[in-house]
Amino acid sequence: MATPFHRGELAVQERMGQADIAAQVGRMIQADIPDRAAEFLAEQPMVVVAAADDAGRVWASQLIGLPGFTRAVDRRTVAIEAHPAPGDPLAGPLRTRRPIGMIALQPQRRRRIRVNGLAEPTGDGLRITTDQVYPNCPKYISRRLIREFRPTIAGEPVRSRSLNAAQQQTISSVDTFFIGSIDTAGHVDASHRGGNPGFLQALSPTHLRWPDYRGNSMFMTLGNTASDPRCGLLIPDWQTGAVLQLTGTAEINWDTETFAPGAQCSIDFTITEVVSIDRAGPLRWGPVELSPVNPPA
């Protein structure tokens, strides 16, 4: 039977001793968009996409609109009527055809669906031809409710090669971030990481570390990382609409002395560029309810 996994994913599954579980779980991956997934996508006011820019750097960006802005138009096509904020690292690259990863995450109900495929620009956004569509478990998703939808003009992007002190402090307080990764064939994936504040560490202005907690055993992000270190992070400020976007390289750290409680391994991330945008989107979210399954940070 053909496997949906590439060599990097298979290698990590074997190392983790979870290859049999992954083979079973992997059967849910399909190219077609199930009816329930289509309904879920149409309800969401935000999705996160990941892609490589023309220089090969991987970024993760948010796309926001009123529910219905993301919808399945047929069994293999997702239409998104939104563009990244002006100055977003993917605002230019997504004007041309390229592989894309997408995650639709619903904090209110702790649900998420991932979509990978090929994106083509349209006049009002993107159209994705799907290669992989699959749900993820609710683990580590922080619950939040939308407080308001406030259209604003995005701030000017601020670019740097490293994190300043305030950004490092922000990182140490987050409970959620999104990650884009890529394999050697150029296929891109977007995923989510969650935990108690402090689970994402800024070890220096250019070096982050986070734990990899047990999930669905497919290891799509870690499998990509094992194959190609390029990745990008999106760190949203749920209260102000600001975003912090990082691109760089990631490495799986198997040294057990670096493992946080509940971790299967650690991920070390080296930053090559930072983009900060105030008021990058109109969504404002209320107080957080951390996932009850989060290990201690």
UniProtKB/TrEMBL annotation:
SUPFAM superfamilies: FMN-binding split barrel. It comes from the Bacteria. InterPro entries: Split_barrel_FMN-bd. This is Pyridoxamine 5-phosphate oxidase. The lineage of its organism: Bacteria, Bacillati, Actinomycetota, Actinomycetes, Mycobacteriales.
